Every structure is written in structure tokens, then in C-alpha cells.
Automatic annotation (TrEMBL):
<dbReference type="GO" id="GO:0019842">
    <property type="term" value="F:vitamin binding"/>
</dbReference>
<keyword id="KW-1015">Disulfide bond</keyword>
<feature type="transmembrane region" description="Helical">
    <location>
        <begin position="381"/>
        <end position="405"/>
    </location>
</feature>
<dbReference type="InterPro" id="IPR011020">
    <property type="entry name" value="HTTM-like"/>
</dbReference>
<feature type="transmembrane region" description="Helical">
    <location>
        <begin position="301"/>
        <end position="318"/>
    </location>
</feature>
<dbReference type="GO" id="GO:0005789">
    <property type="term" value="C:endoplasmic reticulum membrane"/>
</dbReference>
<feature type="region of interest" description="Disordered">
    <location>
        <begin position="831"/>
        <end position="859"/>
    </location>
</feature>
<feature type="region of interest" description="Disordered">
    <location>
        <begin position="1"/>
        <end position="21"/>
    </location>
</feature>
<dbReference type="InterPro" id="IPR007782">
    <property type="entry name" value="VKG_COase"/>
</dbReference>
<dbReference type="InterPro" id="IPR053934">
    <property type="entry name" value="HTTM_dom"/>
</dbReference>
<dbReference type="Pfam" id="PF05090">
    <property type="entry name" value="HTTM"/>
</dbReference>
<dbReference type="InterPro" id="IPR053935">
    <property type="entry name" value="VKGC_lumenal_dom"/>
</dbReference>
<keyword id="KW-0812">Transmembrane</keyword>
<keyword id="KW-0456">Lyase</keyword>
<feature type="compositionally biased region" description="Basic and acidic residues">
    <location>
        <begin position="97"/>
        <end position="110"/>
    </location>
</feature>
<dbReference type="InterPro" id="IPR011051">
    <property type="entry name" value="RmlC_Cupin_sf"/>
</dbReference>
<feature type="transmembrane region" description="Helical">
    <location>
        <begin position="204"/>
        <end position="237"/>
    </location>
</feature>
Length: 859
């Protein structure tokens, strides 16, 4: 055995090294320089951290290896018959050059490589050739190409850690007893009606298994089992409640599913410490492809990103090509947030909404995957994507989603980036960090000549991995556009909310919700509090949930002496700043109505798209009104009517017709009046009225109203504020009446009782002072307040879980002891208890009592 080439020391900028097998089949750029020489017998994993590729083997740092010839393999690696050609280095002795240069790169007069050595444009751009896709075997070989596991392992650790944080918070472990308390009459909305929550103590066990699975995934401990333990409870909880679905919760389940099938424990894992076979071993390329589709070519160092993370960005951008988003109606009021203040220094609020929120959001989603796709644009992609997700973390309450997306961004980089990062750390710190040496061969990969014998031909395992990758990607590309199959879930927007990547494209506002029940035997009518027996509000927009809700109400109302109940819903919704209109037919008994997941919903009212051009006119009307006047725009179908109640506080309310023809019935006066386009009439306060659409086409009208009670209150409070300021600055010399003394001294125990107006003033002043104090609080105080809130969430999650697991093992104690334990879990020992307004009790024992009259619109 003899060395056929040598190497010499040179500065990193003195030349390049090209490494290739003797048969010239592949070649790759190794580095710009090197530090020292090593012998053919040195182990690759003992060399300094190397950057680059030798044939099918990746090495790291600035190390040049002398090649050898022969049939005996050096210990530690399997490179056979490789030559190192040093070009452009002036200080390399000629006697150290190879006598034969079968792979020498020829250059033309322009200095460009020529011939087959240069590689095709597709290979340089995408990282693979058409020949790699010419047959199933070649495709399997491509997708099972050995790849560095480092980047995959870092993502595994980050994702597992974020899921550990997510489970007590957005998954709801800290408030599990409030959602699944045993014995509650609650209407739930699972994907399949057969799905039911377990008893509360068992639900805590489910969450404990999910938490331990996420922790094991993060550590790479019993990795495959941990992934399954995290995945199955997650999807059970996810499918149990459609009202909590959103895009990022769906994405978490997909990522956990993908990681379950990968070898993400081959690096920086407890499994790697316990098993030499798994420790620092290659992973097949499809492990990366299924997450972000990165395909790396050993010659061109290009990356092709076509999978899960890419799909999230790109399809979200395609969905934003919707006319409502492009025209700036989807997130019209988002520009009011303080994060957009810098943009409003040069743009108006309307232009900030249109150009920054909508157009820049569209361009970012469409281009993010491509910016991360290419080496040259990747730093720019990182900058914009990081800024975008950091903004989202402040704009929306979306849990760990921005941080999961930030953690996924490095997947687009070269898979060995963690090793390069470790190689630049101090030597003492490197001992605590992941390995920086080259990975060892793995049976999961397909190697070409010169590597392991068993990996030369794709086996069944490799073919299954390739098939899984292709089928999964096709399914993910198909699902966002599969609404023609699941037509029962199509409402004004298509499909089940959460898997179509149409984030923020549609915003809704609800003006009027009325639930009417009729006793099937007696014919008696009654009205229900909207949302009674539920813990969510999303049912109002989805036909499938409305059907589930009506079925649940028909099962619960007999407990309140309503037999064979018929349920009718009158729900008014505005989507993307359109008219308020009915979404479902109020004349249909939803209990008896037909619904199928595969058939269109017959009692769904169409969205009046023909009225969309009115939105510009509606904005003009709003802008022409003063600050004390409000307006609500209504559109209704022929043959239907709106029953409404004008609150006594709305002393100045009128209705004006914009299109069509309506008849207004004043119920108390038993008087009707017909309105045609442009006509207007005053409505009495404290009375019911009905608006009938009598024109053959939909009618459009608007309510214009002034809250005279609130306006009078604001004037009185402004007077008190002015009086207080005059007394403080000495311009008011006369003594204040006793009932106004609290303006200066606050409420004094034993003193005169302040008037209701003064009490309202003092509460407002206290609230404003508290808001101002929090707004101007130093950073360390805000951080402490944030940390204490999170500490309470994790503390309560831990204590309630311990109580429930104790109940399962030892049995439940007495109710008195259980109440004491729950009270202790609810304590906030590290921060003062903040009072919050009480929420509506969804378990009201008599839901019929509070709303014996029809619910009125809250203008």
C-alpha cells in the first residue's frame, strides 16, 4: 500500500482542494485550506472538525487526508482509491502531486470548468440529476443517501423542549380540571362523535404520558417509544375538541409524526450514549426531506427544500392570494398594534395595513421557502423569517408556534452546521457539547462503492422509507385542496379549520346570535343563552359543530322540562369587513336537519359575494361619522326578517336603507313602515322592532346609533377630571362638596359614601394608573411578572397531576381533603392574586331563566 498524493500547509486563501474517487464518478469541494497533515491510518473521527465531503463520507474542519491504494481498508473509515489533487497552490512541491490526474479539472480561457466535470445546471441548482429520478431504485438510493444527523438532532431537541413547555400551557394541562370536570353537562365537539373524554383523573394520566413522551423525545431517550407516547395522546386530545383547532396545533402533530419515523436519536441523545451503533451515525436523506426536503449534492452544496416546513410557508402564501387579503380586508385593524409604529412614521395607518401587514405578509409567505432554499439568499431569509415570527409572538396568543418555526429554520442549512459551530467553541466547552467528529456508517443508509457491504443495494427498509416520504408529501400537498371531498365541512370558508394553512386570511365578527327552542309536544317557545353548556364560541361558524351542538341541547333540555326540543339558530356574521348577514337558515330545526361530511350543507346560507364591492362605500360612511356615533351594516335575504331590540341606553337610533326594500314593524306601536333605497326612520329605544326584506333581491341597510347614556357618563367624568385638576393646581379655590372629596383623598373608611359617578371615576383612574405603571415598568419587573405567571402555570400543572395520579393509585380522599389540595394548587405564593371578571358559567343549572326574552343585538 502506498500513498499516491500528499498535501502541504498553505493559507486558507491560497487555493482549493478537490477530492474525488479514482474512477471520477463524484467529486466535491472540501475546503479553502488546511491545518495539518495526517497519515492514511488516522481515524477520520479523531481528526479536527472538518467541512466538506469525500465521496460518500463527510469530514469536518480544515484537515486534508492523504489517500491510499489497495484492498485493505484503514481502521475507522472505508475510503478506498481516493486521490487528493491540489490546484492553485504555489507552495506544494511537485513531487507531492499525483503522477496521474484522471480527475483533473480542465479550465477554458475564461477560467471556467468544462466537460462532465462541471456538472449540469439542475445538479448545481437542485442538488440532484434527472438520472437520480429515472428509476425507482435510483430514487430510493437518492432518498437513502447518508446524511449528517447533527442538524436533525438539534431540531429534535428544540422541538421536544418546546412541546414540554406547550403541554402545560396551550394544551391545557394547567386548567384540565376546568375543561373535563366529572359530572358537568357540557357539549363537546370531537371530530368523531364516538370520541369521549376519559374521567378527569385518567385525562391527567393521558397528559402525563404525553409530557413524558415529549421529554424523552427531547433527550433522545428510548426515542421511538417516547415519540409514540407523545404522539398518540396528542392526537387523541387534538381530535377530542375541534373548537381548539388551529394551524400550529395541527403542525405540531405532523412534526411529531414525522420525527417518529426518523433516526433523530443518532446524535446528541441518551440512546447514542447507551448504544455505540446509534452514536453519531448517518441518517438517510429522507429524514430531512420529510421535514424540510433538503437534498444536498456532494459537488455543488445546493439544497432543495420541498417538504413540510416549505409547504407551511408556500401554501400559506398561496392562500393569501385571496382577493380579501390582497385588498387589505383580512387583518384590517392589525396595524393599530404598537409593533407597527415605526412603519406609521412614514405611512398612514391604512397604507401600513395594506402594504406592510397584507402585501409584505403575502410576499414573505410566498418567498420564505425559496429564500431559505438557496445558499446566497438564506441569510436574508433568516432575517425576514425571524423578524416575522418574533412579531407574531407579540401580536397573537399562539403559544410556542413562533419558536417552533424559528427552531425549524436551521433545517435548511447544511446538516453539519452544529459540528462547525462546536469546532469554533473553546476546547473546554467542546467537552460538554455534541460530538464534532464525522459520523459513522449506518444500516439505515445506502452507500455506494467503498462503504459498507450491506448497504450497497437498497433493501425493503430503504424502499419503505422512500415510499413513506413520497406518499406523505403528496398527501400534504393534497389535503389543503381536498375540500371537494369533505363538502360538509365547507362553510363560507372551505374545509375543517386548521389544516389548510389559511392563517389569518378570514376574520369574523358576530353581531347577533339567537337560539330558539320549541317544545315538540306543547309548542312552547323559549330562548337560550348563546353558548350555554359549551366552553367555546367557534361553533357559531361551522355547520358540523352547530349540528353537534343542537344534538347535545336536544339531549340536555329534557332535564329542564322541554320535551322533544326543536332548536333554531339565528347567527349573524361579518367576514372580512362585509355586511353582517345570516350564515345559517333560521327556519330549519337543526336537530332534525341532515348533515353529512361528504355532502354540501343544505341549510347553509350563501355568502353574498355580490355585495363585496360595497366595502369601500361602507368605509366612507364610517369615516364620515363622529367619534360618538356607531354604525352596523346589515344584509338579509328575501322572505326573512330580523327581530331586534333597541336598548334604552341607545337614545338616538335610526335605520337607513342602502339597497332593496324593507318593511319595519314597530311591535309595541303595532305600526309598519316601508323603506326604499336612501330612506331613513327613527327607532324608539326600549322596544322591539322587526325588519322584513320584501324586495326580490337581498336588502342592505344600516343602524346608526349613539349611546346617549355612555355619552352623558363621559361628559360627567370629563367634568370631574377637569375639576380635580383645577383643585390640584389651585385654580379652584372653593371647597368641594362632601360627596366629591374622594376625588382628592380617595375612598376613606368611615367617611361619606361616594356617589356612583365618583366611584366610577375612581375606578377608572385606578385602572389607568395601573396600566400606565405596567407600561412604564422597567424590563426586570416585566420579566419577573412574566416568569411568575409561567411559574404558576407549571406549579399548578404539577400539583394537580400529582393529586390525580395519587387518586388513581390510592383512591380519592374525602371531599374536604380534596378541596384543600385543590385550593393549595390554586395559590399564587409568589405573586399577589389579581382579580379578573368572572366568566359566564357554562354549567348554569337553569339556562332558560336569564334569557326569557329574545336576545338583542349588542350594538
Amino acid at each position: 500500500m502506498a500513498a499516491s498524493a500528499g498535501s502541504a500547509r498553505a493559507s486558507p486563501s491560497s487555493g482549493r482542494l478537490r477530492v474525488m474517487p479514482c474512477d471520477g464518478e463524484r467529486r466535491g469541494l472540501v475546503s479553502e485550506g488546511w491545518r495539518r497533515e495526517i497519515s492514511p491510518w488516522d481515524r477520520v473521527e479523531e481528526a479536527p472538525a472538518v467541512r466538506g465531503v469525500l465521496g460518500e463520507v463527510e469530514i469536518y474542519g480544515f484537515t486534508v487526508m492523504v489517500t491510499f491504494e489497495g484492498t485493505e481498508r484503514p481502521k475507522g473509515h472505508g475510503l478506498v482509491g481516493l486521490e487528493i489533487l491540489v490546484e492553485g497552490v504555489q507552495d506544494v512541491p511537485s513531487n507531492q502531486r499525483s503522477r496521474e490526474n484522471p480527475g483533473k479539472v480542465h479550465k477554458d480561457k475564461a477560467g471556467q470548468t468544462s466537460g462532465s466535470r462541471q456538472g449540469s445546471r439542475m445538479g448545481k441548482l437542485l442538488g440532484f440529476e434527472w438520472t437520480d429520478l429515472s428509476s425507482w431504485r435510483r430514487l430510493v438510493t437518492l432518498l437513502n443517501r447518508p446524511t449528517d444527523p447533527a442538524s436533525l438532532a438539534v431540531f429534535r431537541f428544540a422541538f421536544g423542549f418546546l412541546m414540554v413547555l406547550d403541554i402545560p400551557q396551550e394544551r391545557g394541562l394547567s386548567s384540565l380540571d376546568r375543561r373535563y370536570l366529572d359530572g358537568l353537562d357540557v357539549c363537546r365537539f370531537p371530530l368523531l362523535d364516538a370520541l369521549r373524554p376519559l374521567p378527569l383523573d385518567w385525562m391527567y394520566l393521558v397528559y402525563t404520558i404525553m409530557f413524558l413522551g415529549a421529554l424523552g423525545m427531547m433527550l433522545g431517550l428510548c426515542y421511538r417509544i417516547s415519540c409514540v407516547l407523545s404522539l398518540l395522546p396528542y392526537w387523541y386530545v387534538f381530535l377530542l375538541d375541534k373548537t381548539s383547532w388551529n394551524n400550529h396545533s395541527y403542525l405540531y402533530g405532523l412534526l411529531a409524526f414525522q420525527l417518529t419515523f426518523t433516526d433523530a436519536n443518532h446524535y446528541w441523545s441518551v440512546d447514542g450514549l447507551l448504544s455505540a451503533r446509534r452514536r453519531n451515525a448517518h441518517v438517510p436523506l429522507w429524514n430531512y426531506t420529510v421535514l424540510r426536503g433538503q437534498v444536498r449534492d456532494f459537488r455543488t452544496m445546493r439544497y432543495a427544500s420541498t417538504a413540510a416546513i416549505f409547504i407551511v410557508y408556500f401554501i400559506a402564501g398561496v392562500k393569501k392570494l385571496d382577493a380579501d387579503w390582497v385588498e387589505g380586508y383580512s387583518m384590517e385593524y392589525l396595524s393599530r398594534h404598537w409593533l407597527f409604529s415605526p412603519f406609521k412614521l412614514v405611512l398612514s395607518e391604512e397604507l401600513t395595513s395594506l402594504l406592510v401587514v397584507h402585501w409584505c405578509g403575502l410576499l414573505l409567505d410566498l418567498s420564505a421557502g425559496f429564500l431559505l432554499f438557496f445558499d446566497a439568499s438564506r441569510p436574508v431569509g433568516f432575517l425576514f423569517v425571524s423578524y416575522f415570527h418574533c412579531m407574531n409572538s407579540q401580536l397573537f396568543s399562539i403559544g410556542m408556534f413562533p419558536y417552533v418555526m424559528l427552531a425549524s429554520s436551521p433545517l435548511f442549512c447544511s446538516p453539519e452546521w452544529p459540528r462547525r459551530l462546536v469546532s469554533h467553541c473553546p476546547q473546554r466547552l467542546q467537552e460538554l457539547l455534541p460530538l464534532k467528529v464525522a459520523p459513522q456508517p449506518s444500516t439505515s443508509c445506502v452507500y455506494k462503492r467503498g462503504r459498507t457491504k450491506g448497504g450497497q443495494k437498497p433493501g425493503l427498509r430503504h424502499q419503505l422509507g422512500a415510499a413513506f416520504t413520497l406518499l406523505y408529501l403528496l398527501e400534504q400537498l393534497f389535503l389543503p385542496y381536498s375540500h371537494f371531498l369533505t363538502q360538509g365541512y365547507n362553510n363560507w370558508t372551505n374545509g375543517l379549520y386548521g389544516y389548510s394553512w389559511d392563517m389569518m386570511v378570514h376574520s369574523r365578527s358576530h353581531q347577533h346570535v339567537k337560539i330558539t327552542y320549541r317544545d315538540g309536544r306543547t309548542g312552547e317557545l323559549g330562548y337560550l343563552n348563546p353558548g350555554v353548556f359549551t366552553q367555546s364560541r367557534r361553533w357559531k361558524d361551522h355547520a358540523d359543530m352547530l349540528k353537534q351542538y343542537a344534538t347535545c341541547l336536544s339531549r340536555l333540555l329534557p332535564k329542564y322540562n322541554v320535551t322533544e326540543p326543536q332548536i333554531y339558530f339565528d347567527i349573524w356574521v361579518s367576514i372580512n369587513d362585509r355586511f353582517q348577514q345570516r350564515i345559517f337558515d333560521p327556519r330549519v330545526d337543526i336537530v332534525q336537519a341532515t348533515w353529512s361530511p361528504f355532502q354540501p350543507t343544505p341549510w347553509l346560507q350563501p355568502l353574498l359575494m355580490d355585495l363585496s364591492p360595497w366595502r369601500a362605500k361602507l368605509q366612507e360612511i364610517r369615516s364620515s361619522l363622529d367619534n360618538h356615533t356607531e354604525v352596523v351594516f346589515i344584509a338579509d335575504f328575501p322572505g326573512l326578517h330580523l327581530e331586534n331590540f333597541v336598548s334604552e341606553d341607545l337614545g338616538n337610533t335610526s335605520i337607513q336603507l342602502l339597497q332593496g326594500e324593507v318593511t319595519v314593524e314597530l311591535v309595541a306601536e303595532q305600526r309598519n313602515q316601508t323603506l326604499r333605497e336612501g330612506e331613513k326612520m327613527q327607532l324608539p329605544a326600549g322596544e322591539y322592532h322587526k325588519v322584513y326584506t320584501v324586495s326580490p333581491s337581498p336588502s342592505c341597510y344600516m343602524y346608526i346609533y349613539v349611546n346617549t347614556t355612555e355619552l352623558a357618563l363621559e361628559r360627567d367624568l370629563a367634568y370631574l377630571q377637569e375639576l380635580k385638576e383645577k383643585v390640584e393646581n389651585g385654580s379652584e379655590t372653593g371647597p368641594l362638596p362632601p360627596e366629591l372629596q374622594p376625588l382628592l383623598e380617595g375612598e376613606v373608611k368611615g367617611g361619606p359614601e361616594p356617589t356612583p359617578l365618583v366611584q366610577t371615576f375612581l375606578r377608572r383612574q385606578q385602572r389607568r394608573q395601573e396600566i400606565e405603571r405596567r407600561r412604564n415598568a422597567p424590563f426586570h419587573e416585566r420579566l419577573l411578572r412574566f416568569s411568575l405567571r409561567k411559574l404558576y402555570v407549571f406549579r399548578r400543572s404539577f400539583l394537580m397531576t400529582c393529586i390525580s395520579l395519587r387518586n388513581l393509585v390510592l383512591g380519592r380522599p374525602s371531599l374536604e381533603q380534596l378541596a384543600q389540595e385543590v385550593t393549595y394548587a390554586n395559590l399564587r405564593p409568589f405573586e399577589p392574586v389579581e382579580e379578573s371578571p368572572s366568566n359566564t358559567d357554562s354549567s348554569n343549572p337553569n339556562p332558560l331563566e336569564p334569557h326569557s326574552d329574545p336576545i338583542h343585538s349588542e350594538f
